[in-house]
Design brief:
Length: about 325
């Protein structure tokens, strides 16, 4: 019950931040901006979001292949979409770590092996976005009047990315599983699941030499995912207004605002991410109402394109095969 109350509190906080942002603006202007959308650019933006998600799925596929597995590429992509959809509705996007269970139901891929791939992909994802975020912050500090509260929020997000990446790399290359994780196996409810995760991490450490060889390819695919997401944002901005920030601006904005998605006070950064977009866009000269319209459309399309993974989730839930 306590867990569900915390979940509801995070959802409520995210919705409250969104409502607060909208109330600061002229709602009629926001609606006019949204209704004036260029549908062709929106369709292209959806395609770019899908390509970005496919890049993440390919990164996972490369990690699995590096571990000596031969999973179905199509099923890995569909399972990854399912994991990304779950990450859209969980704190700090943690739902993606359920991807191995979905893939196991779809392709009989061992959970331990696919968990190794997810951990390796997640670690590189954190580091790539953290590095890009630091570059973006250094760039925007020079051209924008960033207030201390904005700087602090962005630095917290970047710190979480770095900490997450270091934590996952320690699990991969640390030599042994920390005692705290081992003790979690004794929990009455979560112990069985934690046991599987510990087993997966032990397997990952056994295969770390193979995983290490795949890291450059994974990093490249994650970088391509960031560029695809930035392209989608640029297309959405072009659909909403004529004078928009450049594609380079969005390539820098994506990792910087993505860092806020890992602040675990709301679901997948709901409200916090929108606040980040609005702050940066208005500082770049975008009118307030148009910035809010932009961030609402981004949230809708970003999550909406991940609906592709819903059949995979439903199939894994309805499957009678043992996990």
């Amino acid at each position: 019950m306590t867990r569900y109350l915390r979940l509801l509190a995070r959802i409520g906080l995210g919705v409250a931040i969104l409502i607060w942002l909208i109330q600061l603006a002229d709602v009629s202007k926001i609606l006019r901006v949204i209704l004036s959308l260029n549908t062709l650019y929106i369709a292209l933006a959806c395609g770019s979001f899908i390509i970005a998600s496919v890049m993440v799925a390919l990164a996972l596929y490369v990690a699995l292949k590096g571990s000596g597995l031969s999973p179905s590429l199509r099923k890995v992509i569909m399972a990854s979409f399912g994991g990304q959809l779950l990450s859209d509705v969980t704190p700090a996007r943690s739902g993606y770590f359920l991807t191995p269970f979905i893939l196991n139901k779809m392709d009989n891929t061992p959970i331990e092996s696919s968990m190794a791939g997810v951990v390796a992909t997640g670690a590189i994802n954190f580091f790539v976005k953290a590095a890009l975020s630091l570059l973006a912050l250094a760039y925007f500090v020079r051209i924008l009047p960033l207030k201390p509260i904005i700087m602090n929020a962005l630095l917290v997000g970047i710190s979480l990315l770095i900490a997450g990446g270091l934590g996952l790399l320690m699990l991969i290359f640390g030599g042994r599983i920390p005692r705290l994780v081992e003790r979690l196996k004794k929990l009455p409810v979560l112990g069985k699941a934690m046991g599987r995760i510990v087993k997966a991490l032990n397997h990952l450490q056994e295969e770390r030499g193979k995983v290490r060889k795949s890291l450059p390819q994974i990093a490249l695919l994650i970088l391509l995912s960031v560029v695809s997401n930035a392209t989608a944002l640029y297309l959405i901005s072009t659909a909403l207004w004529h004078s928009s920030p450049s594609l380079l601006d969005f390539i820098l904005i994506v990792p910087l605002v993505s860092a806020l998605m890992y602040v675990p006070i709301t679901i997948a950064g709901l409200g916090v991410q929108e606040w980040g977009y609005v702050v940066l866009l208005t500082l770049l000269g975008v009118p307030f109402e148009e910035a809010i319209a932009f961030t609402l459309v981004v949230r809708l399309l970003f999550t909406g394109t991940d609906i592709i993974g819903l059949p995979s989730i439903l199939k894994s839930l309805s499957s009678s095969k043992p996990p």
